[in-house]
Amino acid sequence: MAKYNIEEKETIEKVKTYLKAIRTLNQEKFSLEIECEDIPTPQSVKFSKEMPGGYSKPKDEQITSMMMRRELINKRLELFNEELDRFTPVLYLLGAGHRNIINVYVNSRGYTSMIDTLDSDYCITESSYKRKFPEACLKLSKYIDLDNIPSLEKLDNRFNESIKEINKKREHSKNFVSNINL
Q1: pLDDT classification of 125: cutoffs 50, 70, 90
Q2: What CA–CA distance (Å, rounded) separates 126 from 118?
Q3: CB distance 12 to 134 below 8 Å
Q4: What is the C-alpha to C-alpha distance for residues 143 and 83, in angstroms, rounded to an integer?
Q5: Which residue, 68, 87, 103, is CA-closest to 148?
Q6: Cα 58 to chain center, whole Å?
Q7: pTM given for the model
Q8: From CA 182, how far away is CA 173, in angstroms rounded?
Q9: CB count, 10 Å around CB of 94?
Q10: Chain segment 134-175, per-residue pLDDT in tens
Q11: What is the rounded CA–CA span in Å between residue 5 and residue 51?
Q12: Averaged over 85-106, what is the pLDDT?
């Protein structure tokens, strides 16, 4: 990064922070997808009459609980997808080499796997990555909002607000129905 001035170096660091946040969201989204897949469907044989520890919970209660859990996870996944969908189209404004580097960067679990993927899938060596990555960051900085870096905390707050909204609507409809019945 010796050939970049101070302002460009700061921009590169901000873009790296942004990309790390996107990577974190990708990893959390992946974990949520796995968690959602592990939730048994209503017709699953996993629903038993006896829960671990000898506590019995009615099957309909188990099903309702699992369906609500799945619904909440899907709502959270929806928020993650919205955030990632804002980022993904921007990559297509970059050239293929830079796009591939950024894409692998945000989808890799670690440095070694990223370098291996770049080398095996895109014929981009580690030295090429080190040279091209700062260039890609500078080009990407023109298209992303570096003052509004996505985070798990922000998405969790949005998720909690949406749950509060849903609860308010449910409470309002319950009150409305009870007033009609009077």
Answers
A1: very high
A2: 8
A3: yes
A4: 15
A5: 87
A6: 34
A7: 0.82
A8: 14
A9: 19
A10: 999 999 999 999 999 999 999 999 999 988 888 887 777 666
A11: 63
A12: 96
Tokens encoding 14: 């901000």
**Cβ count near 98 (within 10 Å):** 19
**79: Cα within 13 Å, side-chain hemisphere:** 22
Sequence-separated (6 or more) residues with CB below 8 Å from residue 16? 137
- Give DSSP secondary structure letters for the chain: -TTS-HHHHHHHHHHHHHHHHHHHHHHHHHHHHHHHHHSPPTT-TT--SS-GGG----HHHHHHHHHHHHHHHHHHHHHHHHHHHHHHHHHTTS-HHHHHHHHHHHH-SSHHHHHHHHHHHH---HHHHHHHHHHHHHHHHTTS-TTS---HHHHHHHHHHHHHHHHHHHHHHHHHHHHHH-
Q: 55-69, 90-104, 140-154: which range is least confident on average?
A: 55-69
Sign of CA dihedral 100, 102, 106, 112: positive
Instruction: Give yes or no for a contact between 152 and 83, defined as CB atoms under 8 angstroms apart.
Output: no
